[in-house]
Design a protein that fits this description.
With about 550 residues, this protein is an alpha/beta fold. It has 4 domains: about 90 residues; about 150 residues, Rossmann fold, CATH 3.40.50.300; about 100 residues, Arc Repressor Mutant, subunit A (Orthogonal Bundle); about 110 residues. It contains 26 helices and 12 strands. A 5-stranded parallel β-sheet has the order 2-3-4-1-5, covered by helices on one side. The chain has a 3-stranded antiparallel β-sheet with strand order 10-12-11. Helix 8 links the parallel strand 2 and strand 3. The protein is elongated, with a radius of gyration of 32 Å.
Length: about 550
């Protein structure tokens, strides 16, 4: 509870420290006293109170709901074990915060590289795939180093962290001005902009977006006494390059966040436990390293598995036996997936089902496996004209649900590549396994459709594309109005083109079927007429000869 309350207070501080009376006016549902108690730490506030508090501070409701549920589980587990006073050394699916610097390990080299880059450039950008720990690197790696009294560089005048939100310039304009130098430091003010991709994903106002980016780019002027560090999900890099000033600023000032080495993973596993005077069995460490090493987006699942194992520890030891008893990574994945799915409303739950099934290749005489897809393919699910079926354009909903699945750590996005966070989800999550078994043959046909449509697109969308009658029959359900909700726009266009060719072929055959018999009849009639004419011509001559 204390850690959760501290995180709420940090959120309020990052939002500019609005008074509780101001927060109460922004969200009229709760009083000043309720918000004050929520951040006091004496008891865990209810979820509605937390969401109202977060909304008043411009935070991400989905992220904070997940954090609240995790805190609620920890409180319940602590009460049952009598260990409520001892916080976990692992953050589970939540990111590390600035106050977690003593538990953040395995990224020392990256933090040093980032400090060096920021020392040479006033605006730098850290690009990392979803699940690679970009937010944690900035919050628990960079910021504690800057605030450390022993920091060897120029002491910052202030360190501010913010996330853009829906109105980045309006919300954060006061933070884009350097703090007055104090007696302890005459250094620059550091602006750490986490989840910078929200500028493109949440902000719908082009002028608001441009004003915010322009202000950040202008910070590169030394006279502004600002240094800016942007944390961006890697698949949004092309969007960053659309802004000429930002593209020029980050051309030589970008830091890619790669996967952790095995040695770094061992640090991330063992050293947080040691900081709390706990022990991780060597066998457990090696099992987790083997599970996560080389996998995209594996760090949140690693932290989540460690947190769940910590809750089931034996004395002060995290054991392999406890990890295996809860089903290992597969068990952790299944519980996390089901909890994330349960938080979706029915419409978004159906969209989530379609997205998850797109990321699976159903086996034909082989095991089911992950299937990578492009971001455009996933985000365009249902994005076809559909006013007739009452659903309208569902592409926006697909994008929102994809982002929710990414935040829940079920799906990773790296560049244009979208895939399940772990192949274990295919068999470990009963709900997903049930979806596959329920619709296995239809899924195989759909995978054929996706590949055929991609090939059709690659050759310029030939309007005369032919789909065999047998395959068209298999695609029958997808060709209906209801079935089109499961398609991308490209797949729908491919089926439409194939059907058009098929109908033209049928019409042509019907025409041929009518014309050929008609021509044959005409030929017979003409032949008979010619025969009769010849007969009449020769008959009188024969009669004359006979007489």
């Amino acid at each position: 509870m204390a850690a959760f309350a501290y995180a709420l207070r940090r959120l309020r501080q990052e939002a500019g420290g609005p008074a509780y009376s101001t927060m109460a006016r922004r969200s009229a549902a709760y009083s000043v006293t309720t918000y004050s108690r929520a951040a006091g730490g004496e008891q865990l506030p209810t979820l509605p109170v937390v969401l109202a508090y977060v909304a008043a501070c411009g935070g991400d409701p989905a992220e904070w709901e997940a954090r609240w549920r995790q805190a609620s589980e920890d409180v319940a587990a602590g009460r049952s074990s009598g260990a409520d006073a001892e916080p976990s050394p692992y953050r589970g699916l939540a990111r590390f915060e600035p106050g977690d610097g003593d538990l953040f390990f395995g990224r020392d080299r990256l933090v040093a590289d980032l400090l060096g880059l920021a020392g040479r450039h006033r605006l730098v950008c850290v690009f990392g795939a979803s699940g690679s720990g970009t937010s944690s690197l900035l919050r628990a790696g960079l910021i504690p180093r800057l605030r450390d009294p022993g920091y060897a560089g120029e002491r910052p005048a202030a360190v501010r962290i913010l996330t853009p939100g829906r109105s980045p310039f309006t919300t954060h304009a006061p933070a884009l001005v350097a703090a007055a130098a104090g007696p302890a430091s005459d250094g620059d003010t550091w602006l750490v902009v986490d989840q910078f991709e929200e500028v493109f994903g949440l902000c719908d106002d082009a002028a608001e977006r441009a004003a915010f980016i322009d202000a950040l780019v202008a910070a590169a002027d030394p006279s502004r006494r600002l240094r800016v560090v942007l944390g961006v999900r890697a698949d949004f890099r092309p969007r960053c390059l659309e802004h000429p000033g930002l593209a020029a600023a980050i051309r030589d000032a970008s830091l890619p966040l790669g996967r952790m080495t095995q040695a770094e993973l061992r640090e991330a596993i063992g050293r947080p436990a040691a900081a709390r005077r706990l022990v991780v069995e060597r066998a457990l460490t090696e099992a987790l390293v083997e599970e996560v090493a080389g996998r995209a987006g594996g760090l949140p699942m690693l932290s989540h598995a460690l947190r769940e194992t910590w809750r089931r520890r034996t004395g002060r030891t995290l054991t392999l036996e406890a990890y295996e008893r809860m089903g290992g990574m597969r068990g952790v994945l299944a519980r996390s997936a089901e909890a994330a799915y349960a938080r979706l409303d029915p419409d978004r739950a159906e969209t989530a089902r379609q997205i998850m099934l797109r990321l699976v290749a159903p086996g034909a005489g082989a095991v089911d496996a992950r299937r990578p897809a492009t971001r455009a393919e996933v985000a365009s699910i249902g994005a076809v004209p559909g006013a007739e079926r009452g659903g309208g354009d569902r592409g926006g909903a697909a994008h929102e649900v994809l982002e929710a699945l990414v935040r829940a750590r079920l799906v990773t996005v790296d560049g244009d590549r979208v895939e399940l966070a772990h192949e274990g989800l295919v068999t470990a999550w009963p709900r997903l396994r049930g979806w596959i078994e329920q619709d296995r043959e239809a899924l195989r046909v759909h995978r054929w459709l996706t590949e055929a449509a991609d090939a059709w697109e690659a050759v310029g969308r030939d309007r005369g594309v032919r789909i065999s009658p047998v395959r068209l029959a298999q695609l029958g359900d997808l060709a209906t109005e209801a079935g089109r909700a499961r398609l991308t726009a490209l797949e729908a266009d491919f089926i439409a083109a194939g059907l058009a060719t098929h109908h033209r072929t049928i019409r042509n055959r019907q025409i041929v079927g009518v014309v050929i018999p008609l021509l044959s009849s005409l030929a017979l009639v003409s032949g008979a007429a010619a025969w009769r004419q010849r007969r009449r011509h020769h008959l009188p001559a024969r009669r004359s000869h006979g007489s």
